Amino acid sequence: MSNFLDSLQVELIFSLIIMVVMAIFFIYAGKKFATADPTARPKGVVLVVETGVKMIYDYLKSIMPKKFEKNYYPYFAMLFAYLVIANLSGLLGFEAPTSNYSITLALTTITFCLIQFNAIKKQGLLSYIWGAVWPPTNLLSILSPLISLSMRLFGNILSGSILMYLVYQLTGYISGLLINFNFLGPVIAPWLHCYFDVFAGCIQTLVFVTLSSILIMMENPD
Asked: Which residues cross the membrane (predicted)?
């Protein structure tokens, strides 16, 4: 059992923690919605969730036609919520799950399968297979979203984590020349966290969701 736990990647453990916390929160929010007075002004958790869902749905409506609403809007809304929390979890001392390529590849694989599903639905199975294998270079164009989406998210989040680690090492070294305490880190790091964790994390979430939704829609535009 200990060998199994030792083999688990820390990012996977943090990802599971995030998903459990999200599940508990949404179950709680769902109960609040069920008992809320629809004629009263929303407040508290109901107001927060309602505002967040409306913002995401309004954004998705500007990209994907209404016919995608039932099957895809809830998926992308949950994906958006997970990625925002995962990308910002570094601020809480977690190892950001999206800094692990296996996690970004798993998320992208879902999008990749949805893209191919819509392509087969639009073209038919035989036409899809023929178009995928001839000319042979078409196979590269089919696989490119799987590689580009997963690597973009992984690379940006990982690079931010590495740069922040180097910042703490540098401030610790400079501080150590004076006293045995990293007093420069708390002064300099928060400003860089605002960019590498907050700004970059939110932007990468928006980019991933936007590109995923566009790629799915392109395969079934009608």
From this structure: 12-30, 72-94, 101-119, 170-192, 198-218
